[in-house]
Write a structure and sequence with these properties.
The complex is a heterodimer of chains A (about 110) and B (about 110). Chain A is about 0% helix and about 45% strand. Chain A contains no helices and eleven strands. In chain A, strands 2, 5, 6, 9, 10 and 11 form a six-stranded mixed beta sheet that branches. In chain A, strands 3-8-7 form a three-stranded antiparallel beta sheet, with no helix packed on it. Chain A has a two-stranded antiparallel ribbon with strand order 1-4. Chain B is built from no helices and twelve strands. In chain B, strands 2, 5, 6, 7, 10, 11 and 12 form a seven-stranded mixed beta sheet that branches. In chain B, strands 3-9-8 form a three-stranded antiparallel beta sheet, with no helix packed on it. Chain B has a two-stranded antiparallel sheet with strand order 1-4. The chains are: A mainly beta (about 110), B mainly beta (about 110).
């Protein structure tokens, strides 16, 4: 069974401080991981995916297969980063479509 | 831009009523999904579809059914609404390629009294 764990429901940091949102997964196959973000009153949207190895809005995430983790990091938090963040794992059904299994989410609050 | 439109943003229904939640996407995506979003529980997959008239159960299909008669439209049906189905429902679509991104609608907030 696949599972995504985000241990922090709420994370509050000051502007300019480093941010790390934790995500651990449990999956017997080759994982494909994503971070989605939902800003206040906006729809859920993709932030980044591990295979792209990209930095979006200053955020990066590295897949660590040994620790089964995909933590989201940003060196200097900004107030506009305040949002709900979800880690997601791609699961393959074998039927031709893929759903994503989401973690429970971490509410990030950046204090001025 | 991909657009996923959920026709009802807010609904209030009574226990036992039949409820239809409609979702339309305009990018010719093969895959469509219904999730429910609850505080502290995150997003949970109810049903998904990879083609017209095809459907597969997600993690929490009990009490729900779906319909995909046309490629662009994916409907979620609550045959007999119950109070524990009060939630935010999110529809999403995605194209059929590796590392596909899910595009979400704005959500439908359903309250069952």
């Amino acid at each position: 069974a696949q599972r995504v764990t985000q241990p922090e429901k709420l994370l509050s940091v000051f502007k300019g401080a480093p941010v790390e949102l934790k995500c651990n997964y449990s999956y017997s196959g080759s994982p494909e991981l994503f971070w989605y973000v939902q800003y206040s009153r906006q729809r859920l949207q993709l932030l980044l995916r591990h295979i792209s190895r990209e930095s979006i809005k200053g955020f990066t995430a590295d897949l660590n297969k040994g620790e089964t983790s995909f933590h989201l990091k940003k060196p200097f938090a900004q107030e506009e980063d305040s949002a709900m963040y979800y880690c997601a794992l791609r699961m393959y059904s074998g039927g031709g479509a893929d759903g994503l299994t989401f973690g429970k989410g971490t509410h990030l609050i950046i204090q001025p | 831009d991909v657009k996923v439109t959920q026709s009802s943003r807010y609904l209030v229904k009574r226990t036992g009523e039949k409820v239809f939640l409609e979702c339309v996407q305009d990018m010719d995506h093969e895959n469509m999904f219904w999730y429910r979003q609850d505080p502290g529980l995150g997003l949970r997959l109810i049903y998904f579809s990879y083609d017209v008239k095809m459907k597969e159960k997600g993690d929490i299909p009990e009490g729900y059914s779906v319909s995909r008669e046309k490629k662009e439209r994916f409907s979620l049906i609550l045959e007999s609404a119950s109070t524990n189905q009060t939630s935010m429902y999110l529809c999403a679509s995605s194209p059929p390629r590796v590392s596909r991104e899910l595009f979400f609608g704005e959500g439908s907030r359903l309250t069952v009294l």
